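#struct-queue
[09:14] JT: dropping the first one here, sequence first, then the structure tokens:
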Amino acid sequence: MISRRTVILAAASALATLTLAGCSFSCSIGEKTASSSEMNSQLTDSYEQRTGIPLTSVDCPEVKAEVGEQFSCTGTNERDIDLDIDGKVTSADEPDDKIKFRWNVVRATAPGELYSTAARKSLERQSGRPLKSVTCPDRIPIREGAEVHCTVETADGEQLSATLTLTDLDGGFRINVDQSGSVPADTSGA
């Protein structure tokens, strides 16, 4: 078993966004709505200001200038973390032509390659032996306790089954290699 706190540097700061609550921004209203482009721009700025990580894409709807109005956006940050972001209008000030919002990341998925690379390095460091590869699913949900199945290939070509378990929202994980030997056969697509 590989120990806790193997940190994936490329993803750690990106995953920390999940712990942010109560982030807010404001934008101008026209015709009692905030346009999709204004929402995208303001959320992009707010996200980078709070996390230090730019969003490379974001898609928000037009939002009514009504307190309590809820909205959902999707985005991807520069670490290739896919995000679902929910928000709510907290105030609508017509004389100032401003709406204020609060937002939270409610779901994130990371590229499996981030974990594959970090798991390989960690297993090699722990065992003192080189590995040919560690292969995990293409996308991994970022939530504490999430488990994914990976394949470990040793330098001599032996394939082992492994379970990677996320231990926190900051990139920490534990990987357990099945010590029985081989990878179970895949019967799902036969």
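[09:21] JT: and here's the second one, same format:
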Amino acid sequence: MIPASRRELIRKGVHTAGLLFIPLLYYSEKIVLGIIGFFFIVYPIIEWGLIKGWHIPLISALTKYSKRPDEQKLGFAWPAYFLAIGVMFSLIFFDRRIAALAIFHVCLGDTVAAVSGRCWGKTRLFFNRRKTWVGSLAYLLVTFVGGLYWLPPAQALLLATVGAAVESLPFKNLDNLLIPVVVSLMGSRLL
């Protein structure tokens, strides 16, 4: 069994790789939508194959080492699918600046919140015992600073605050879907 901290680092490393979509998004939204659409089709096939005992170099190891115990039992890692749905929603319904902001929030903000919360967080949120104040503040800080690329300071702070609030909610694994959706909806009002 993989230690939980190592598994989460691998998992969040994959999460952070989604940031590569931001520069690609400015090159071609169709390519990004194509990649995510391909993922929608291929990912369930890969998961099914892994359940059936297939060995796919790199993917087998990455999947094995990044799934949480409850996902191991189910065999299917829904958070990856939720992330793809949330990003696709942002790409289809909003302009690329908003989609880029949503991707930034869910890929980097969520990762920083999880890693800093696990490493330095002691005091748990009263409404979600799985999250810490340190993690929420780290999300707020990183997404505020990063949001300054797209938004004026007051708007970047407001969007970072909303994103941090959504990330802290007690909906296990749904934050991958909710963060890009809520950030896109709120961001569209600010831009």
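[09:30] RK: nice, looked through the second one.
[09:31] RK: The chain has one domain: 4-190.
[09:31] JT: good to know. The radius of gyration is 17 Å.
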